[in-house]
Amino acid sequence: MSTPTVRTHQLRTARAGRGATTDLGAFVTALIGDDPPVRIELFDGSALGPPRSDVPATVQVRSRDALRRMVTSPGELGLARAYVAGDIDIDGDIYAVLGLRDRLPRVRLTPRLWADAVRLLRPSDLVPLPPPPEEARPGAAAELRSRLGRGHTRETDAASIHHHYDVSNDFYELVLGPAMVYSCALWDEDRKRRGAEALAFAQDAKMELICQKLALRPGLRLLDIGCGWGSLVRHAARHHGVHAVGITISAEQAAWAQARVEADGLADRVEIRVQDYRDIHDGPFDAVSSVGMFEHVGLARLAEYFEQVHALTAPRGRFVNHAISRPAGHAPAIARRSFVQRYVFPDGELHEVGSVITAMQAAGFEARHMEDLREHYALTLRAWVANLEQNWDRAVADVGVNRARVWRLYMAGSALGFEQGRIGINQVLGLRDPDQAHFPLRPDWAADPAPPTRSVVRDPHERMDVALQNTMGRDR
């Protein structure tokens, strides 16, 4: 696997030694400790750590601006801005570099270190640099509405979705691969060994799992809230014969999804809409899915969200809510000065799964099954990072190097977050009316589901249909 090509900063005195005698080197040593597991090359010509040949990654602090950002915006956000802007570069294994978090749990300068950093700067350096243009900075009015519990209006949600999803469909194809599914895949040991190569099969298995949990069969009507590029509704129509409606508030996603629906010959069974979930009025649906959209709902809107879904679900219907979650005891809102809030998910909120189940049941659903897929999302993110790094030059040409850095940092950091249990991912299955749902005594879906056939996309402009045996997903 190739990694992004980074221009090497020409050190004035390249050194392979483990120590650094400069004031800057002493500051970095005080910050992260002795003997770092990666090499750190500083803009004053000094270096810390072993030679490049002996470490998995090298961090290049390329200019004084990196230090300026750390001082004027202490914590995670300052470091993230430095990386996105190119003041800091990472050459090699980004996971090894992010592992430095264990040495700096709060990613924040102590008062003494902050004072030491100030002494390394000029007075003019204490004026904050403008953040990279990729940063989303909420206006005062929007922030006040959010703090008062009045956020997540149709307008603010549309703006947040535009920031995150309307980047470039071509870019998402590079990262997500031919499946074009931007949510946690379902892995087994064989797929895990194969990594990014098996991503499409792992995504097929996840979509099939959801279809089986919803008990889809020909003639039923499915609503997919936050359908993305339409992969689940196309899967459900092709393999289960349903009539599906997929909604998204991203115009770019909808255009891509509609084109693929038509190319697949599914226009008579699949409808793609640009529509907010609050504006759907043509229920009921026999099954409802929400996969990777719930993070945009917000605590203040949970009751409204579940009540709307409940109203749209037929009495015999099932509902699957698939969402990233927080551990118990954490506030739902992503910190406003965090990297993820500013660069990835403006207004994003993560909820503890118990509170999600409570809210779902308060709206009238009976929660019948919950599944935690935390390790599966870590594997999915690692596959996406591998895709991005393998296609780095194409990604940079498409969205720019700053945006590509945002995604590399976000996905790698999130993978570690799932692995370490700092975030989770849960599927919750609810029944609209248990007396009419005919739910079996025990769950009847396959542990490792595989659809009867699969369409493999080798290239966005070239399709090849391949017939697979029902058991292929389990045997590979």
Strand tally is 13
Strand content: 15-25%
- Across the major sheet, the strand order is 7-6-5-8-9-11-10
Which structural category do the helix and sheet elements fall into? alpha/beta
* Overall pLDDT: 85
* CATH homologous superfamily heading of the largest domain: Vaccinia Virus protein VP39
CATH class of the largest domain: Alpha Beta
Q: CATH topology of the largest domain, what is it called?
A: Rossmann fold
Number of domains: 2
Distance between the termini: 22 Å
Are there runs of 5+ residues with pLDDT below 50, and where? 5-21, 454-476
List the total number of helices.
20
**Level-2 CATH architecture of the largest domain:** 3-Layer(aba) Sandwich
What is the helix content? 40-55%
